[in-house]
Design goal:
This protein has six helices and three strands. The protein is mainly alpha-helical. Helix 1 packs antiparallel against helix 3, helix 1 (33-50) packs antiparallel against helix 6 and helix 5 runs antiparallel to helix 6 (163-193).
Length: 212
């Protein structure tokens, strides 16, 4: 005997296509003309660096085919892989911050009002992130310069020369993170203190002029 669906409880499980409406991890702070300019620079660098992953994929495929199809392994190709992957990852760090797509593990933050979230961001940026990044740049720049002065190369046979380039990118990535963090800080102070003057409010894909 067929059982009618009429009167049955509605399906409480949302489909995968509907999941996006329940997931929202971005904190929407007002932006300023300076933060907008800084974000544009960081975004351009991050999007350009993302193309390195296509190059990395091509190098990996070439190395795998060469090794297993023709028995030709290459230390140089192996180092090219991780050099390019490291550069792509490092140069994309700032982009994740300006787009607020970095990983957040904070059950308190998401339950607060926008101003409450802004106060947490202010504390985290001023007392945690920026001091750490400043220390990292202070240590990383001499690290890269020392590598350049020594003409450091890979210790592996047939490895890559110019190891200072990757170490320089490491230092650059922290500088870009500082710029991204300062841009974020400007948005926070614009919300909390009205300085710098906010020019518009980001709301998803819609941009609304600030009414103040």
């Amino acid at each position: 005997m067929a059982v009618s669906d009429k009167g049955s409880p509605p399906d409480v499980h949302a489909s995968a296509s509907d999941a996006g409406q329940f997931i929202h991890h971005h904190t929407e702070f007002p932006t300023t003309w300076l933060s907008q300019a800084l974000d544009a620079v960081i975004s351009a660098i991050g999007k350009t660096a993302s193309w390195l992953w296509i190059v990395v994929t091509g190098v990996i495929i070439y190395a795998v085919v060469g090794r297993y199809a023709f028995g030709m392994g290459s230390v140089t190709l192996e180092e090219v892989q991780w050099h390019l992957a490291g550069a792509g990852w490092l140069l994309g760090l700032g982009y994740t911050l300006v787009t607020d797509d970095h990983v957040r593990v904070d059950v308190i933050h998401e339950r607060l009002s926008l101003k409450g979230q802004a106060w947490i961001e202010l504390f985290g940026l001023v007392f945690l992130l920026l001091p750490f990044l400043g220390l990292a740049v202070y240590e990383m720049i001499p690290y890269a310069v020392s590598s350049w002065e020594q003409g450091e190369t890979s210790q592996a046979p047939a490895g890559l020369p110019y190891r200072w380039i990757l170490k320089g990118i490491l230092a650059l990535s922290f500088v870009l993170l500082i710029i991204a963090a300062l841009s974020r800080l400007l948005k926070v102070t614009a919300l909390l203190f009205g300085f710098p003057k906010p020019i518009r409010i980001e709301s998803g894909n819609n941009k609304k002029e600030d009414a103040s």
